[in-house]
């Protein structure tokens, strides 16, 4: 290998020889190179000036991070017939009949908008029973801030109201196949959700403590306890009063405070929630809902794929629904009386425990109870071939009667992308002639990457 000095020396001898042979020609070539270099530098300066004067480029489009499709279907049978099952399984994505029920397919998109916001969208499709038609709904679509000061976070768009543990949870994240009864009664089959905005404040505490205040529209089929819709109607058989948004008081305002603490190998999380808005049972009537929830998850270090674990969840919800005065009408005689203004109260709780006893396997038990007070408006035979509206009890109303349900669950997750659940339900209700028993087998399949679930 030649040395660097030998190479340099050879180059100098070559240049000297070239200069000695043709000095004028070499000088001409050097002048030409200098001229071309100066011209190139001038062109680069002109380009840089044009770029500096040009307007800023528009922000880059949404860059998707998560894209997933989640499919949930159920098969099963019940001692209740197909006409009765929907009154027992009131959730919008609950099993609805003997045989197969396609609960839903959820398409989820999520990603970073820019350094200041992220965005998510959850679109669902499901089969309506018993007619077999297909519906597509926008479940959630919202943006969330990522860099506000003082521990603040803003959410804007359409979203599930952050009330308690179960209402903000999508069906694929449920431990059991069907929706808790009290949620169906106060928040409807699809859960309370509507357009709005909310502000979250992470308090400066040594433990996780968050306070949430939000405001949302109170109308539509997904707000049955509030301004509702003609198809859903008012509670307790009251006539539906169509009301627009006349003031801030007609909108849904909700608040939640939740705290989480590490306890040994587990986490305990407790929260309280409240929400209120005008409702559809009169011209000046309101609904107030409040609740409390607590959950504990035990997960020791050194497990496999998140097992073993124990999850205990319980939630209590109570609703005060003001109902205006109602004329009682006989189809033959006309107005025959009036039911006065009344506050209908409905309350209930759900408690469940899940034990993950082996990687992929879990077993669970759940108990639920609902009751209430206040009269329903019912239509009965007037004895002359017509009908009359009158004041009656709650016993015949599947959304207000006394109700108890017990459930047992066996769950298997061969991977994070597949989930199978075998569930037994036992239903008791004042309006039922007997105890009804149901068995459901659910299957879930996930394609892609879904946003993480929050404990």
Structural account:
The chain is mainly beta and 455 residues long. It has a single domain, classed as Porin. 13% of the residues lie in helices and 50% in strands. It contains four helices and 20 strands. A hairpin with a 7-residue loop joins strand 9 and strand 10 (286-298). The chain is globular.
List keywords for this structure.
455 residues, Porin, 16-stranded antiparallel barrel, two-stranded antiparallel sheet, 4 helices
How is this fold's topology laid out?
Blueprint: H1 4-21, H2 23-53, E1 63-78, H3 85-88, E2 99-114, E3 117-127, E4 134-145, E5 152-160, H4 181-187, E6 193-202, E7 208-216, E8 252-263, E9 266-278, E10 286-298, E11 309-323, E12 326-330, E13 334-339, E14 342-358, E15 361-373, E16 376-381, E17 387-392, E18 403-415, E19 418-429, E20 436-448
Antiparallel strand pairs: 1-2, 1-20, 2-3, 3-4, 4-5, 5-6, 6-7, 7-8, 8-9, 9-10, 10-11, 11-14, 12-13, 14-15, 15-18, 16-17, 18-19, 19-20
Alpha-carbon Rg, integer: 33 Å
- The CATH topology annotation reads as Porin
- Main β-sheet: number of strands, strand sense, barrel status? 16 strands, antiparallel, barrel
In sequence order, what are the helices and strands, one letter per element?
HHEHEEEEHEEEEEEEEEEEEEEE
Estimate the helix proportion, in percent: 10-25%
What strand line-up does the widest sheet have? Answer: 1-2-3-4-5-6-7-8-9-10-11-14-15-18-19-20
Instruction: Write down the overall geometry.
Output: globular
Separation of termini?
A: 67 Å
Find the count of extended strands (DSSP E, 2+ residues): 20
Integer tally of domains:
1
Roughly what fraction of the amino acids lie in strands?
over 45%
Q: Given the structure, what is the number of helices? A: 4
> Mean pLDDT score, rounded?
87
Give the second-level CATH assignment, the architecture.
Answer: Beta Barrel
Q: What is the CATH first-level class name?
A: Mainly Beta
Summing up helix and strand content along with how strands pair, one would put the structural category as mainly beta
CATH superfamily: Porin
Low-confidence stretches: 1-26, 47-62
């Amino acid at each position: 290998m030649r040395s660097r000095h030998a190479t340099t020396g050879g180059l100098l001898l070559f240049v000297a020889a070239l200069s000695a042979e043709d000095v004028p020609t070499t000088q001409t070539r050097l002048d030409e190179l200098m001229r071309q270099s100066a011209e190139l530098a001038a062109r680069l300066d002109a380009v840089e000036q044009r770029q500096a004067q040009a307007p800023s480029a528009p922000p880059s489009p949404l860059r998707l991070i998560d894209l997933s499709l989640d499919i949930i279907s159920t098969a099963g049978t019940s001692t209740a017939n197909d006409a009765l099952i929907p009154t027992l399984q009131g959730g919008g994505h609950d099993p609805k009949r003997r045989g197969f029920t396609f609960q839903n397919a959820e398409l989820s998109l999520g990603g970073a908008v820019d350094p200041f916001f992220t965005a998510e969208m959850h679109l669902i499709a499901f089969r309506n029973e018993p007619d077999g038609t297909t519906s597509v709904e926008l479940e959630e679509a919202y943006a969330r801030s990522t860099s506000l000061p003082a521990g603040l976070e803003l959410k804007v768009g359409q979203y599930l109201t952050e009330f308690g543990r179960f209402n903000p949870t999508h069906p694929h994240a449920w431990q059991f196949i069907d929706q808790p009864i009290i949620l169906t009664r106060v928040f409807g089959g699809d859960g309370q959700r509507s357009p709005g905005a909310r502000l979250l404040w992470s308090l400066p505490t040594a433990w996780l403590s968050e306070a949430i205040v939000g405001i949302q529209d109170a109308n539509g089929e997904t707000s049955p306890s509030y301004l509702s819709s003609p198809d859903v109607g008012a509670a307790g058989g009251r006539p539906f009063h169509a009301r627009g948004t006349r003031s801030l008081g007609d909108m849904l305002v909700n608040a939640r405070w939740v705290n989480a603490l590490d306890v040994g190998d587990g986490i305990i999380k407790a929260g309280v929630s409240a929400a209120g808005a005008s409702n559809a049972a009169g011209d000046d009537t309101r609904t107030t809902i409040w609740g409390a929830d607590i959950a504990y998850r035990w997960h020791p270090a050194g497990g496999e794929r998140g097992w073993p674990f124990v999850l205990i969840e319980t939630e209590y919800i109570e609703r005060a629904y003001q109902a205006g005065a109602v004329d009682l009408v006989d189809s033959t005689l006309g107005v025959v009386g009036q039911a006065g203004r009344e506050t209908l109260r409905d309350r209930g709780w759900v408690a469940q425990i899940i034990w993950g006893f082996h990687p992929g396997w879990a077993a669970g038990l759940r108990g639920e109870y609902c009751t209430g007070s206040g009269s329903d408006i019912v239509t009965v035979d007037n004895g002359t071939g017509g009908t009359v509206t009158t004041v009656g009890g709650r016993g015949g109303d599947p959304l207000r009667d006394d109700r108890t349900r017990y459930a047992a669950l066996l769950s298997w997750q061969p991977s994070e992308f597949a989930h199978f659940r075998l569930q037994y339900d036992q239903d008791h209700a004042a309006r039922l002639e007997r105890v009804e028993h149901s068995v459901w087998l659910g299957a879930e399949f996930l394609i892609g990457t879904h946003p993480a679930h929050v404990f």
